Amino acid sequence: MRVPLALLMIATPLAAAKRPTVAQLQIQVKKLTEERDSLKQRLAATDSLQQDLVAAQQARDQAKADADAARKEVEQLKANLKANASGGDTLLKDLEAARKEAEASREELAKVKAENAELRQQVAAAPREGDLVMLTRDVQPARPLNLNRATPHIKASGFFASRPTGVVVVNVLVSEKGEVLDARLLQGLPGDSPDAKAANEACVQSAKNLVFDPATSKDGNTRFKVWQGVGFYLD
Fold this sequence. Notes:
Largest sheet: 7 strands, mixed
Oligomer: single chain
Number of strands: 9
Distance between the termini: 14 Å
Protein name: TonB C-terminal domain-containing protein
Strand content: 15-25%
Keywords: Coiled coil
Number of helices: 3
Shape: elongated
Coiled coil: 22-129
C-alpha cells in the first residue's frame, strides 16, 4: 500500500481556523531543522580541524615541557660538574646528551609552529571549486530538481497496522556536480518498531535518488560540495 507523503518543502492544505496548519507546522519544522542542520554541519566540518589544532597545541606544550626539563637537567649537570671534578667525563657526556635532547625539543617546537601556521592558512583560505564547505550566508545551498521522483514508498507491516507518520530528516552529501554522494539518517521517526525503521530507511534511499542544482558561491561562479538536510513529512 502506497502511503501519501509530503516533503517538508511542499506546501500542504490549510487546517481549521485558530489551529496551526500542516503547512505552517512544516515551515516551522523546516526552519528549525535547517538551523539545527547548519549548526551540526558547521560542527562536523570544523571537528577535524579542531582536533588537529588541539593535537598541535598538545605537541607544542609537550615540546616546551621537554625543553624546560632538558634545561633543568643541563643546569643540574653543570652544578654537579663543578662540585665533583673527578666525574667530569661522565658528566660531560650527560651534558652533551641533554644538549641534544634540548635541540630535538626545539626542532619539534619549530615543526609544531609550522603546522599551526599551515592550519591557520587553511582556515583563512577561500574555498575553491569542488571544496567541501559549510552552509553559510556566503554559500547558496543545493536545490533539489526531482523532488516528485524521490517520494519514499512505505508498506505497513500488517493489515491492521497504522501507517508511520512524522518527520524524517536525511543529511545528504551533494557534490559540486549535483550528485548525492552519501545519505545519512539525521532524524528518524520515534520508536524502534519495524514500520518506523522501514520508513526511515525508505527516506534515506529516496534521498539518494535526488538530483541537485549544486551549491555555489554567492555570485554563482564557484560550485561547492556540501552536507545539507532533506526533510520528508509522512502524513
